[in-house]
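Priority: low. Protein: Peptide methionine sulfoxide reductase MsrA. Input follows.
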Amino acid sequence: MKFKFALPLCPESPMFFRRIPEHKMRLPTAEEALPGRDEAIQTSQIHTVLGTSLHAPFPAGMQQVIFGMGCFWGVERLFWKIPGVHTTAVGYCAGLTPNPTYEEVCSGMTGHNEVVLVVFDPEEVSFEELLKTFWENHDPTQGMRQGNDTGTQYRSGIYLSTPAQQAAAEVSKANYADLLLQAGMDAVTTEIIPAPTFYYAEPYHQQYLHKNPGGYCNLAGTGICMQGS
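Result:
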């Protein structure tokens, strides 16, 4: 079974002297993508921290959004700690291969992003607050990577459930992009699209950092705060 390690695995490091495979830095075409499978990968059912269901149906009034910010282990922990978040789950989306495995996603040949499904109560936490958390806790200018994690599955992305979420996300992206440019940083590369199919990741990935408190977490923001925060 393949795991990530809390070591600097950057391919540019003198420890490795290897080049990043070209295919891992671009999305595969439909002809190149792995075929996947018809059957869903077996997943966990209950959130080990919150005690809520990882799967729909969710309570009335809940909203959903999916975030990609790099390795999904640390991202999930970031959001499950927010009051008003009903449940979180890690998985894969925005790719081509149906029901992909973790190993397939890591190959770069499915097109999927490592993402976190966030189900939240808008009466307790606003969508804007979740967006603030998203922007401030990773670097959205890095393209197909996040820090030492390199490949298409580490791209920045927001995958939305409603037109109102889409509008709010686009406004927040423009505002944060302006702040980053003023600070001399590169343009934002975050993709913002309606939520595609979300495929749940394998059980050992769900709430990974609760089960493994010393596990790998590569979250690192830019140090630039949203205006008004």
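Strands lie at 63-69, 85-93, 113-120, 145-146, 149-150, 156-160, 191-194, 199-200. Residues 1-17 have pLDDT under 50 and may be disordered.
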